[in-house]
Amino acid sequence: SLGVVTCGSVVKLLNTRHNVRLHSHDVRYGSGSGQQSVTGVTSVDDSNSYWRIRGKSATVCERGTPIKCGQPIRLTHVNTGRNLHSHHFTSPLSGNQLLCKVIL
């Protein structure tokens, strides 16, 4: 049985189709949004793949409170403290635009 995801939980997010984990580190894109780069990695032991579950901006999400299905959340990178963002910019590496949906 799967455990409950709560506010304050630290998770690794796995793309099961491609077997890669959501990864980031303190490197910024030199074009586009100019924000911190986010990629997928295959390493299970990668320390830059941890994300903290938080409530959406300006919303109180008490630590330990279960996340409800469909509830808006923020994902904050544990090592850098930066939030995961989406923008209308294409990747400077692939030319693709990132579209993602996280199902907890």
Brief overview:
The chain is mainly β and 104 residues long. It contains no helices and six strands. The chain has a domain of 68 residues: Trefoil (Trefoil (Acidic Fibroblast Growth Factor, subunit A)), CATH 2.80.10.
Tell me which CATH architecture of the domain at 10-77 applies here.
Trefoil
Largest sheet: 3 strands, antiparallel
Low-confidence stretches: none
SSE succession: EEEEEE
Indicate the CATH class of the domain at 10-77: Mainly Beta
Q: Strand order across the biggest sheet?
A: 1-5-6
The global form is: globular
Structural class: mainly beta
Mean pLDDT figure: 78
Task: Provide the gyration radius in Å.
Answer: 14 Å
Question: What is the total tally of β strands?
Answer: 6
Determine the N-to-C terminus distance: 14 Å
Q: Enumerate how many helices there are, as a single number.
A: 0
Strand coverage percent: 25-35%
Helix content: under 10%
